[in-house]
Specification:
globular, AMP-dep_synth/lig_dom, Rossmann fold, GMP Synthetase, Chain A, domain 3, long-chain fatty acid-CoA ligase activity, alpha/beta, Luciferase, domain 3, AMP-bd_C_sf, AMP-binding acetyl-CoA synthetase, 22% strand
């Protein structure tokens, strides 16, 4: 009996059976693009693999990629695998300090530098003497270029074999709860998880339907790496487009016309706010309710977002308000929520056409086992389960139960009848107010985030008489928030929002106030992780000196 195929087996099969299929489309500036077929992708990867093997690295050597999403990220990863190495991807927005930490902690032997916006600030994080190669879209560097190396180097021949137990990916977490941790994934597990992802998508869009997808969430994050890159490497028939810049994103979407599209809650919220900036929410809602016209309006809205051909849309990485999913479904977008993490290669729960509900993340995917602990923590066994944490056997001992389930750190509730899961918060995010009761911030934040005036928020209040929430106003409101009329409107809306949210909460959960943040939270100012999750400790530290004053003033809506 033949051994089960691994990731590189699939890739070599595509090279042989569909050499001229356009696999990747890369924008190169000025509205121009370059297409890469499977034949061209593998030719480039094989040439770079020859170069890497010539360096004499030990088997399993960690080879890093610091780059935004681009075609050469895919090619470099394949080259690393063919050369016997392990890929270490670094978030392209990381500081020099974190870049250095990941390179040193992983023991990286080599670095690919690619498409970046802040390279000059990141460059000091690269240790002196570390061999580096620059991708074609990289900023100006002193490193030898990818093109120069591949032009003079012969391609590696044959079908390279890697053992299923070899570590293919060392994925560093985004650091929302402290120092990034290196999560080890081997070829056997990432392949089995990716095969299931492909079947999941084909079951939604049709087994023989062509699939187009746009890659723009960081490939250093497991969500994009698994459901976009790895799934496309297994499928072979997916056409992957890349985004050029944030400013061209709508044009990039309209070029790709994705059939499947995944995003994170913060971006789904921003897309909605962009729609509301062009048409007030109440007017749009009224139009959507008119027969025939409503369908025309909904189609126009989706076309404006570049999603009019999307048969499947997904949200993951963080909780999303149920109202937001319902809004997109009202537009006719087949939107589902899923649940996964770095430690299970983003493969654990997904909604199905029959079993789904806004506010729930679905049921266990094929091969996944799950249960809720006595403490309310979600425990999972997944085909994509991590091998362990790199250099941290102490963490391995902490996160696995005696019978091999992974402790997710998330709290949840599973419906007994069908396993439908609802996330109720993070175990470590629970905090006590002065009333002595634990408050779970995530469900309260979801209620607040559903309001059109709010971009995002954070609930806090450790040891205080009651919890409070800091809110970041929507992007279209922020520039006008100092206008007295606008401020009065915001004040009135948020007062009503506070009243509504509190009416749905237990007494010990009720918020004392909403505080409007002085400036938006971003990756650049350190308040968001590279995957746009809020860094609670960082924000709480920043506002700490003001908290007592807010409570003393006793106002329902305050301005930081």
């Amino acid at each position: 009996m033949a051994a089960p195929k691994l990731m590189l087996d699939y890739v070599f099969d595509h090279e042989a059976s569909r050499p001229d299929f356009v696999f990747l489309t890369q924008p190169t500036g000025g509205g121009k693009t370059v297409d890469y077929t499977w034949r061209q992708v593998l030719d480039q990867s094989r040439r770079m693999a020859t170069h890497l093997k010539a360096q004499g690295f030990e088997p399993g050597a960690r080879i890093a990629i610091l780059s935004k999403n681009c075609a050469h990220f895919f090619m470099a990863e394949l080259a690393i695998w063919m050369a016997g190495g392990t890929t270490v991807a670094i978030f392209p927005t990381e500081t020099a300090q974190t870049v250095r930490y990941v390179l040193e902690h992983s023991g990286a032997s080599f670095l690919f530098v690619g498409k970046l916006d802040t390279w000059e600030a990141q460059k000091p994080g690269v240790p002196a003497g570390l061999p580096c190669v620059a991708f074609p879209l990289a900023p100006q560097t002193a490193y030898e270029s990818w093109d120069a190396i591949t032009a003079r180097t012969a391609p590696l021949e044959g079908r390279v074999q890697r053992a299923g137990t070899d570590i293919g990916i060392l994925a560093y977490t985004s650091g929302s709860t402290g120092e990034p941790k290196g999560v080890m994934h081997n070829f056997e597990r990432i392949t089995r998880a990716s095969e299931n992802m492909v079947e999941n998508v084909r079951g939604r869009i049709g087994a023989n339907s062509p699939n187009r997808i746009i890659s723009y969430l960081p490939l250093a994050h497991v969500f994009e790496r698994a459901w976009v890159q790895s799934a496309s490497l297994v499928a072979g028939s997916t056409h992957v487009f890349f985004a050029e810049t944030l400013d061209t994103f709508v044009q990039d979407l309209n070029r790709a016309k994705p059939v499947t599209f995944i995003s994170v809650p913060r971006l789904w919220h921003k897309f909605q706010q962009g729609v509301f900036a062009k048409m007030p929410a109440k007017k749009l809602d009224r139009l959507l309710g008119i027969p025939i016209l409503g369908r025309i309006v909904a189609r126009k809205v989706l076309k404006g977002l570049g999603l009019d051909q999307a048969l499947l849309a997904g949200s993951g990485s963080a909780p999303i308000p149920a109202e937001l999913i319902a809004w997109y479904r009202k537009l006719g977008l087949n939107m589902i929520e899923g649940y996964g993490m770095t430690e299970d290669f983003a493969y654990s729960f997904n909604s199905t056409p029959k079993i789904n509900a806004p506010g729930c993340v679905g049921v266990p995917l094929p091969g996944v086992q799950a249960r809720i602990s006595e403490e309310g923590e979600i425990l999972i066994k997944s085909p994509g389960q991590l091998v362990g944490y790199y250099k941290r056997p102490d963490l391995d001992a902490e996160v696995f139960t005696a019978d091999g389930y992974f402790r997710t750190g998330d709290r949840g509730e599973m419906r007994a009848s069908d396993g439908l899961l609802r996330i109720t918060g993070r175990v470590k995010e629970l905090f006590k107010t002065a009333k002595g009761k634990y408050v779970a911030p995530a469900p309260i934040e979801n209620r607040i985030n559903a309001h059109a005036m709010v971009e995002t928020c954070m609930v806090s209040g450790v040891g205080q008489p009651a919890a409070y929430a800091i809110v970041v106003l929507a992007e279209d409101i922020r520039p006008k928030q100092n206008d007295p009329a606008v401020r009065a409107e915001v004040q009135a809306e948020l007062t009503e929002l506070l009243k509504k949210v509190n009416s749905e909460l237990a007494d010990y959960e009720k918020l004392q106030m909403l505080v409007v943040a002085k400036e938006p939270w971003s990756i650049e100012n350190g308040c968001l992780t590279p995957t746009m999750k809020i860094k609670r400790a960082r924000i709480e530290t920043e506002v700490g000196p003001k908290v007592e004053t807010w409570y003393a003033s006793n106002g329902k809506v305050q301005w930081a």
